[in-house]
């Protein structure tokens, strides 16, 4: 199989790239009807997220924000492109080397796919199909491109004329290569697009659209008119679902069919139960306004949002199962295997800890945990807000650990009091005169009692607080009597919670249990 007609490097590289593209396209097509996590590129990405050191998540969020996943996927594709070029170059020497390289690719893909939670044997099909298609493409492309040198041309060969590269050593059948490359690119493109279409025309979004939500047995009070100061540029009191921040480890979010969904509750309980969605919707549903925030939110950062949730009380569901004494933690697991440890006493203390089915009057968006997620006021998301939740084990902190706590984050994650300046923006230029300073502050479940602002290190001045329906949401605040004079000015904010504790000015990083410090912006008045 050794070829005497060495292809020029560029041709071998091109063949490798097209081979890789065919493999990726065909595996995406094969994964379409299976599931996203069986697409090896995504599986490798998911595995990389899980294996990455804790500091890297933090770095990724800080650097790329909510684009961290597209950036990771682009990185993986770039690495694959380099490896594909290598496959092409080796295959040009000897097809067997190229095939061995493809097989190694496939082995990594199969390993990644099989280590995904809930993976079954059928999940390797997309990888195997992709590698097989890649192998065929590699063979065909090499055949088409390799031109027989005139001295060893066999008589029956009647193909297009042999083009010889400048240096005599290399020969390439350019037309054969070109048509092969175009054909390969077409196969890759069509199968990739078809695969994407298959997976996005998902039954889950149709089922979500068809879900009929019961009326709340315990409706929330209407949001007071004074909760939203309606100042342009100020974060609205209710975050529209499409603008709600998203933080999770899923590269492609789990598609959970509500008809198959169940929630198993076991561990230290008297009566393990398994609820269907219909069971859950039969329970009295409670509506609650709750502000969620992420422990990875830097001071002044965007990872907080406020929504009206509808769900069953988690405490009632647990009481039905009969929690045994000695338990102090709920270990919840999502459909994609992510886990979360929530302090049991917090869930049972009477606050509106929910198994939520709706957000802002609609079934949960798939990105935010459809069909069911946890919402617990007063705890950071990583210890409370399990999306796509499928299992809750009643257990103990000294027996079980969860996804982030095994990666250096604190076991318990009570939300720290925070305040943020939305207006004026950091670095803004504003004209002299009356200038509005406004933002939001949160101390979920304790409530915000005061917000103060200080300019250029001067005296603290009280901000006017907007109303808040409960202690579980953030509060808007405004200072509207600042007479800004020309020059550069620094504005700081601090909140005091309803227990009377002012927010600490001491700066702490997000790890291990949430950032502290005062949000500070600098503006130029000119
Ligand atoms: N299944 C699952 N649920 C999860 C996470 C996750 O990675 N996987 N991340 C948690 C974290 S860290 C936060 S801050 C919240 C964010 O919820 P949101 O994406 O709806 O804003 O979800 C929590 N629930
Ligand atoms: Mo988070």
UniProtKB/TrEMBL annotation:
<protein>
    <submittedName>
        <fullName>DMSO/TMAO reductase YedYZ molybdopterin-dependent catalytic subunit</fullName>
    </submittedName>
</protein>
<feature type="transmembrane region" description="Helical">
    <location>
        <begin position="99"/>
        <end position="118"/>
    </location>
</feature>
<dbReference type="InterPro" id="IPR000572">
    <property type="entry name" value="OxRdtase_Mopterin-bd_dom"/>
</dbReference>
<dbReference type="GO" id="GO:0006790">
    <property type="term" value="P:sulfur compound metabolic process"/>
</dbReference>
<dbReference type="GO" id="GO:0043546">
    <property type="term" value="F:molybdopterin cofactor binding"/>
</dbReference>
<keyword id="KW-0812">Transmembrane</keyword>
<keyword id="KW-0472">Membrane</keyword>
<feature type="domain" description="Oxidoreductase molybdopterin-binding">
    <location>
        <begin position="252"/>
        <end position="401"/>
    </location>
</feature>
<dbReference type="GO" id="GO:0020037">
    <property type="term" value="F:heme binding"/>
</dbReference>
<dbReference type="InterPro" id="IPR036374">
    <property type="entry name" value="OxRdtase_Mopterin-bd_sf"/>
</dbReference>
<dbReference type="InterPro" id="IPR014756">
    <property type="entry name" value="Ig_E-set"/>
</dbReference>
<dbReference type="Pfam" id="PF00174">
    <property type="entry name" value="Oxidored_molyb"/>
</dbReference>
<feature type="transmembrane region" description="Helical">
    <location>
        <begin position="177"/>
        <end position="198"/>
    </location>
</feature>
<feature type="transmembrane region" description="Helical">
    <location>
        <begin position="124"/>
        <end position="142"/>
    </location>
</feature>
<dbReference type="GO" id="GO:0008482">
    <property type="term" value="F:sulfite oxidase activity"/>
</dbReference>
<keyword id="KW-1133">Transmembrane helix</keyword>
<feature type="transmembrane region" description="Helical">
    <location>
        <begin position="7"/>
        <end position="31"/>
    </location>
</feature>
<feature type="transmembrane region" description="Helical">
    <location>
        <begin position="71"/>
        <end position="92"/>
    </location>
</feature>
């Amino acid at each position: 199989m050794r070829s005497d007609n060495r292809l020029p490097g560029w041709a071998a590289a091109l063949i490798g790239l097209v081979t890789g593209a065919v493999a990726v396209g065909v595996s995406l097509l094969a994964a379409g009807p299976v599931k996203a996590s069986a697409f090896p590129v995504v599986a490798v990405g998911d595995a990389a997220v899980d294996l990455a050191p804790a500091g890297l998540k933090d770095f990724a969020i800080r650097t790329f924000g909510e684009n961290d996943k597209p950036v990771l996927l682009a990185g993986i594709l770039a690495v694959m492109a380099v490896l594909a070029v290598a496959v092409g170059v080796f295959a040009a020497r000897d097809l067997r080397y190229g095939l061995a390289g493809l097989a190694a690719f496939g082995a990594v893909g199969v390993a990644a796919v099989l280590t995904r939670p809930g993976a079954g044997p059928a999940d390797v099909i997309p990888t195997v199909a992709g590698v097989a298609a890649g192998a065929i493409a590699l063979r065909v492309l090499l055949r088409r491109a390799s031109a027989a040198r005139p001295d060893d041309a066999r008589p029956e060969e009647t193909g297009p004329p042999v083009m010889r590269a400048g240096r005599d050593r290399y020969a390439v059948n350019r037309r054969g290569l070109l048509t092969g490359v175009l054909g390969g690119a077409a196969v890759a493109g069509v199968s990739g697009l078809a695969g994407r279409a298959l997976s996005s025309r998902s039954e889950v979004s149709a089922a979500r659209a068809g879900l009929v939500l019961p009326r709340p047995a315990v409706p929330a009070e209407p949001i007071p008119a004074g909760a939203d100061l309606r100042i342009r540029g100020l974060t609205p009191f209710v975050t529209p679902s499409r603008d709600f921040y998203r933080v999770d480890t899923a590269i492609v979010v789990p598609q959970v069919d509500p008809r198959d969904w169940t929630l198993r509750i076991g561990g230290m309980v008297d009566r393990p139960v398994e609820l269907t969605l219909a069971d859950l919707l039969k329970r009295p549903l409670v509506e609650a306004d709750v502000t969620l925030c992420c422990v990875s939110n830097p001071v002044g950062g965007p990872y907080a949002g406020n929504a009206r949730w509808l769900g069953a009380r988690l405490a009632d569901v647990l009481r039905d199962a009969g929690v045994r004494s000695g338990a102090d933690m709920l270990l919840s697991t999502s459909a994609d295997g992510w886990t979360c440890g929530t302090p049991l006493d917090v869930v049972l203390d009477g606050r509106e800890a929910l198994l939520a089915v709706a957000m802002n009057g609609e079934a949960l968006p798939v990105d935010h945990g459809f069909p069911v997620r946890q919402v617990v006021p007063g705890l950071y998301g990583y210890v409370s807000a399990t999306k796509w939740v499928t299992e809750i084990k009643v257990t103990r902190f000294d027996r079980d650990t969860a996804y982030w706590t095994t990666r250096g984050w604190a076991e318990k994650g009570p939300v720290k009091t925070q305040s943020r300046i939305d207006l004026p923006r950091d670095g803004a230029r504003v004209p002299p005169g009356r200038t509005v300073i406004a933002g939001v502050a949160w101390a979920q479940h304790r409530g915000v009692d005061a917000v103060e602002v200080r300019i250029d290190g001067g005296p603290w001045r009280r901000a006017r607080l907007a109303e808040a329906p409960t202690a579980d949401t953030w509060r808007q605040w405004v200072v509207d009597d600042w007479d800004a004079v020309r020059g550069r000015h620094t504005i700081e904010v601090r909140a005091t919670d309803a227990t009377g504790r002012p927010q600490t000015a001491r700066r702490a990083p997000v790890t291990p249990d949430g950032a502290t410090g005062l949000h500070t912006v600098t503006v130029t008045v000119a």
